[in-house]
Every structure is written in structure tokens, then in C-alpha cells.
């Protein structure tokens, strides 16, 4: 065993946005986390750039939007979200639902810097090649330029993306569908040929985005065409031929920046936990990437798992807390996969799906349909609450009036601890005796956006209890015990 052996820590495999977010969450809670990542550096040719407002809230509640704004300016807000070849219109929902243009590499860099500053070890050029687990912990076998070594930890989390080695090595069963098409993505510096964000043809779909001032992104989807073997590099000729087969027009494509094939595989892990090993992000649920929700759902996984793992590692978790991760998050991973597959069906150029596409387009004129699709996978409720109540919803990140001045709710969550917002204006201070070491109390004036005299907010920002009525007040102590463990003597 090497000097990397750590017995009280969590090993995270993968320094994508999800692994880094989880590492930062654990570090906030004071848990030693080690990230192993095979690539030498953050990939600056990032492909993802559109995240949902729910992601911004997660970054905001940890104080991470501030450095992103400082370094890259106020991100562009957009009232659109793509769904298959359609745009969902969020102009009516703009205050709570919108897309934000934030490059994935920028998010990763900020997360990486902040996690490292809090003591997370990020071991680059380290690849997971084996793992085993027993009752006390997990042993990860890792290969680096210095050779092979073993890292021992209490828990290991696979945030290693679509082709997750953790998923494979720990024996997670998956439900998989596809591929049923062959597609190409090409970022190029020079392009002349068919234009338009998405045109349907008998043989498939072609999309051209961007322009010479930035770069051109070309996308093809062909039905019934076999993809070349995966080990054959993508060439410009392959891109030209695909566009020609679809549109009937031979384009000029030069100056390749980034070329890759994409299919429409959907992978959903049957479980997110196997003993001491967990999955999060694309490793747990991988769906067609233009679904536009992937980063958001992955960050939600990380923030849901982080505080629960921390409580367990620090021996203060109530019974069953760690199992709530899969119970709460897998339904949303499944949803993302189902909605991804539905989008693939809508992109099929066969006769039936073409008719379905026309009908679907008409349905989108109805605001209720539009709203449902915008929120279906990302508007998570933890714990699953019923009806219109506050239980399970994310606490609105409004500004509260306190004795010391205005305090943004987001600031009260920076430390990733439980927070009891006493909104009674001093009339009925709730009793948290026995939990003050785990739960902060913030007393403020009543807030119209949070219609309750008090709310208990979990470290992930979800409302675990709301004193919406006088009768509910008796439920506070059971809620504190259920989420934060028994009271201290
Ligand atoms: C073209 C394209 C456009 C996209 N656009 C968007 C978008 O606009 N909005 C959006 O929300 N999503 C988008 N996505 C999806 C988004 O990029 C992914 O969902 C996101 O990267 C998943 O994050 P992750 O941390 O789960 O996994 P990843 O980002 O895949 O990170 C996994 C990491 O694990 C590492 N790794 C893998 N195996 C090992 C191993 N054995 N040992 C050590 N390290 C390992 C990898 O090197 C990688 O760094 C897009 C994807 C593509 C391909």
C-alpha cells in the first residue's frame, strides 16, 4: 500500500462537474476527499455550455457563483431550453426557470480550485483500474505515471461518466437502450454548405450552429446507417460524407477543432448504491446530451449525496440516511433517461415519428405542456412531498430581513449545514435544543415567498419540515431527528 492510504475518507473517481461538486460538498463538511482523474487537466475544448437555473442555485448556495461572475462576467440568461428539435419557451417562467450560458470547463475550474483550497486532493493522471469492498471499506486500485497503487477509503463514488469503470468494476446492473442511430458532432473553423439549426431529411437530421466569428458546430443524425468501428478516428471526410448523405449537398468543411461520433444510448443504473460504492452524474444516468439537463441533474446528485455521506463518515447519520440518496435521486435520473428517449423518438425521420413531431409541436403551444417539460426532470422534491405544500421543495433564495440587516438565504447555506429559518418575527422561536451543533438558526421577518412561520432546510437546500400551521410545530423535533440524528445530551 502507498502513502495514499486514507482510512476515514471518500474516494471520488472522476473530476467532471459532478465529482468536483461532490468533493467540494464533502470538504465543506470537513470530510477528507480524494479525487482520482485520469486526464492530465481540465479539457478546455468544453462541449457543454447551457445549464438550467437549478444548477445556478446550487452554485449560488455554496458561494461559487460569485467567483464565476468575477472571472467570466455575468452569464448570459436565456429563456429557451431545447427539447428534441423544439425550443421550450420559458419567458413566462423566467424568474424561476431559465437557461444560463456557463461553460462546463469554467464551472469545473472554480469547483476544482475551491475544493483544493479546502483540502481535497485531486490526483490527475490517475486511473481507476480495479476495486474491491468489504465491511469496513473500499480498496481502489489506481494506475498513475509512477506505477500502480492502492487507496483505501470508507466509501467510493463513481462520478466517472458515461463509460463508468466504477459501474463496471463494482458490478452495478444497468438498463440500457440504443443505439439506433449514427451521428457526428464536429466543431470546425471553416464551413460552407447547408445551413439551419435543424433540418429533417429522409435519411436523417442535420444541424449547423455558430459562425465564423466563433466556430461552426455541425451535428448529424442518420437512421439505418452503421457507425464505423469506435477505434477508427473521425475524419473531416466522414463529416462531409454524412452531411451529403443527409442533405444531398456536398459541404466544404475545414479546420477541425473537435470531432466525435455520438449515438443515442441511454444508460440507467438499476441501483445507485452497492454496499460502500455509489454512482452519481452520467455514471448513474446517461441520456441523449441535447436533452439539456445532464449537468443540472448530476450536480443535484452530488449535492444530495454529499451531506449524507459526510454525516455517515462522521458517525452522526440517522439510520437509513444514506439509502435516501438512491430513493430520492434515481426517480429523477430515470425521468431524464425517459425524456431523453422521448426526444430521440421525436428526432426519428420515419413516417410515424414525423407525424408525432407535428402533433407534439402543436401541444407545445399550450403553456401547461411547455411548463411540464421544462421542469419534469430538474424540479426535484426531496423528500417527496405532496400537494402544494413547502415540504421537499427547494427553499427560495430570497433575501431575508434580520436584526443585523438583509441576509440572502443562499448565504445561510454556504457552510452546507442544516438551517432553521425562524420566520415568526420573534413571535414563536422554534426549539432546536440538542441539534445546535448541526443546525444553524436564522431569525428573520416573515417572508411572503416562504409562507410558514419556520422552515427546516437540509444542507442541500430542500425543505425537510415547514411550520405552515400551528399543528405542524410538533413535527419539528421528529424532523430534526430524522434528518440530523438524535439530539446531543
Ligand atoms: C456535445 C455535448 C454537449 C453537451 N451539452 C450540454 C449542455 O449544454 N448542458 C448540459 O447540462 N449537459 C450537456 N452535455 C452533457 C454534459 O457534458 C455531461 O452530462 C457532464 O459532463 C457529466 O458530468 P459528470 O461529472 O457526470 O461526468 P464527466 O464530465 O464525463 O466526467 C467524468 C470524468 O471521469 C474521468 N474518468 C473516467 N473514467 C475514469 C477512470 N477509470 N479513472 C479516473 N478517471 C476516470 C473522465 O476523464 C472525466 O473527467 C453535453 C454533452 C456533450 C457530449
Automatic annotation (TrEMBL):
Looking up InterPro entries in the UniProt record yields: FAD-bd, FAD/NAD-bd_sf, RIFMO-like
Residue span(s) of domain FAD-binding: 9-336
Q: Kindly state which keywords UniProt assigns to this record, in alphabetical order.
A: FAD, Flavoprotein, Monooxygenase, Oxidoreductase
Q: Does the keyword Oxidoreductase apply?
A: yes
Q: Name one GO molecular function term.
A: FAD binding
Q: Which residues form a coiled coil?
A: none
Q: Please state what the protein is called.
A: 2-polyprenyl-6-methoxyphenol hydroxylase-like FAD-dependent oxidoreductase
Amino acid at each position: 500500500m502507498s502513502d495514499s492510504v486514507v482510512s476515514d475518507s471518500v474516494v471520488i473517481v472522476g473530476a467532471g462537474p459532478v465529482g468536483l461538486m461532490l468533493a467540494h460538498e464533502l470538504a465543506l463538511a470537513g470530510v477528507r476527499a480524494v479525487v482520482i482523474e485520469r486526464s492530465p487537466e481540465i479539457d478546455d475544448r468544453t462541449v457543454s455550455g447551457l445549464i438550467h437555473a437549478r444548477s445556478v442555485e446550487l452554485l449560488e448556495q455554496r458561494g461559487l457563483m460569485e467567483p464565476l461572475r468575477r472571472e467570466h462576467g455575468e452569464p448570459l440568461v436565456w429563456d429557451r431550453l431545447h427539447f428534441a428539435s423544439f425550443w421550450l419557451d420559458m419567458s413566462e417562467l423566467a424568474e424561476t426557470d431559465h437557461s444560463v450560458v456557463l461553460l462546463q470547463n469554467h464551472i469545473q475550474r472554480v469547483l476544482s480550485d475551491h475544493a483544493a483550497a479546502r483540502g481535497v486532493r485531486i490526483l490527475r493522471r490517475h486511473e481507476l483500474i480495479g476495486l474491491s469492498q468489504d465491511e469496513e471499506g473500499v480498496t481502489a486500485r489506481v494506475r498513475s505515471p509512477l506505477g500502480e497503487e492502492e487507496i483505501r477509503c470508507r466509501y467510493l463514488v463513481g462520478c466517472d461518466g458515461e463509460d463508468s469503470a466504477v459501474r463496471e468494476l463494482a458490478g452495478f446492473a444497468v438498463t440500457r437502450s440504443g443505439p439506433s442511430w449514427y451521428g457526428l458532432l464536429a466543431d470546425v473553423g471553416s464551413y460552407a454548405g447547408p445551413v439551419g439549426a435543424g433540418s429533417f431529411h429522409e435519411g436523417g437530421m442535420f444541424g449547423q450552429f455558430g459562425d465564423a466569428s466563433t466556430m461552426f458546430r455541425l451535428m448529424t443524425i442518420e437512421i439505418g446507417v452503421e457507425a464505423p468501428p469506435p477505434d477508427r478516428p473521425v475524419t473531416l471526410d466522414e463529416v462531409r460524407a454524412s452531411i451529403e448523405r443527409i442533405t444531398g449537398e456536398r459541404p466544404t468543411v475545414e479546420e477541425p477543432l473537435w470531432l466525435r461520433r455520438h449515438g443515442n444510448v441511454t444508460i440507467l443504473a438499476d441501483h445507485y448504491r452497492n454496499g460502500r460504492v455509489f454512482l452519481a452524474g452520467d455514471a448513474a444516468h446517461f441520456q441523449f446530451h441535447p436533452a439539456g439537463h445532464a449537468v443540472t441533474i448530476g450536480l443535484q446528485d452530488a449535492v444530495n449525496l454529499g451531506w449524507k455521506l459526510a454525516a455517515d463518515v462522521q458517525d452522526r447519520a440517522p439510520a437509513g440516511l444514506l439509502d435516501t440518496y438512491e430513493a430520492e435521486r434515481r426517480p429523477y435520473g430515470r425521468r431524464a433517461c425517459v425524456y431523453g428517449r422521448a426526444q430521440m423518438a421525436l428526432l426519428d425521420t420515419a413516417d410515424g415519428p414525423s407525424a408525432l413531431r407535428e402533433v407534439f409541436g402543436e401541444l407545445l403551444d399550450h403553456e401547461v405542456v411547455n411548463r411540464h417539460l421544462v421542469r419534469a426532470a430538474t424540479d426535484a422534491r426531496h423528500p417527496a412531498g405532496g400537494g402544494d405544500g413547502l415540504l421537499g421543495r427547494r427553499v427560495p433564495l430570497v433575501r431575508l430581513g434580520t436584526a443585523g440587516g438583509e441576509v440572502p438565504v443562499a448565504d445561510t447555506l454556504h457552510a452546507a449545514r442544516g438551517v432553521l429559518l425562524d420566520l415568526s418575527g420573534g413571535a414563536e422561536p422554534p426549539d432546536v435544543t440538542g441539534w445546535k451543533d448541526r443546525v444553524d438558526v436564522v431569525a428573520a421577518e416573515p417572508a411572503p415567498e416562504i409562507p410558514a412561520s419556520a422552515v427546516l432546510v437540509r444542507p442541500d437546500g430542500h425543505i425537510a419540515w415547514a411550520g405552515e400551521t400551528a399543528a405542524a410545530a410538533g413535527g419539528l423535533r421528529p424532523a430534526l431527528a430524522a434528518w440530523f440524528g438524535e439530539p446531543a445530551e
